[in-house]
Design goal:
This protein has 181 residues and is α/β, with parallel strands linked by helices. The protein is built from 3 helices and 9 strands. It has a 6-stranded mixed beta sheet with strand order 4-3-2-5-6-7. The chain has a 3-stranded antiparallel beta sheet with strand order 1-9-8. The termini are far apart. The structure holds 1-O-pyrophosphono-5-O-phosphono-alpha-D-ribofuranose (PRP). The site of 1-O-pyrophosphono-5-O-phosphono-alpha-D-ribofuranose has 17 residues, from strand 2, strand 3, strand 5 and helix 3.
Length: 181
């Protein structure tokens, strides 16, 4: 039986894992000798987080944070609510936020400031996907898996109406099947 592919594939599981390995090695070098707190953002970053942390060879603690933008449709509004916070004290710690996608940048812009209020040593971002053409605030990730065009992307953690997060690849849906915002 052949499994049906949902959408058009952009990146296969092998390609994503290979990129996670490259970035994991880079992060290991960059933080050599330092402790690192790695915070995955729920829910979208879960798969990417798993791939990444297997390739980070440092003294680490991991946790998850859940922050979502209010709003309907497919666009952030800039008003962000944190519904699951970090369990650790971040004072004087290196923090790496692991995200699935940066679109407008509103969510991470808020989250970065929110975490900086705890006076960590550093806060950096590792995102699986970056969609710079949609950016509404000045925000750059230090570690980027892949830069993507303005497409409706699903799979590998990313959803459409909460579906398709489990797809073992990154694909995109044609505009004709995605409702207007
Ligand atoms: C998605 C994604 C980012 C955010 C990016 O989260 O995980 O956090 O949107 O958009 P922005 O750059 O325009 O703010 P979402 O709120 O859909 O939650 P999810 O991870 O549970 O899907």
């Amino acid at each position: 039986m052949t499994e049906e592919t949902i959408g058009k594939i952009l990146y296969t599981e092998d390609e994503i894992r290979a990129r996670a390995a490259e970035l994991g090695k880079q992060i290991t070098q960059d933080y050599k000798g330092e402790e690192l707190i790695i915070l995955g953002t729920l829910k979208g970053a879960v798969m990417w987080m798993c791939d990444l942390i297997k390739n980070i060879n440092l003294d680490t603690k991991i946790d998850f944070i859940s922050a979502s933008s209010y709003g309907s449709g497919t666009t952030s509004t800039g008003i962000v609510k944190v519904s699951k916070d970090v369990d650790f004290d971040l004072y004087k710690k290196n923090v790496l936020i692991v995200e699935d996608i940066i679109d407008t940048g509103f969510t991470l812009n808020y989250l970065k400031k929110y975490l900086q209020d705890r006076r960590p040593k550093s806060v950096k971002i590792c995102t699986m996907l970056d969609k710079p053409s949609r950016r509404r605030v000045d925000l750059t990730a230090e570690y980027i898996g892949f830069v993507v065009d303005d497409l409706f992307i699903i799979g590998y953690g990313l959803d459409f109406d909460q579906k398709y997060r489990n797809l073992p690849y990154i694909s995109y849906l044609e505009p004709s099947v995605v409702p207007e915002e």
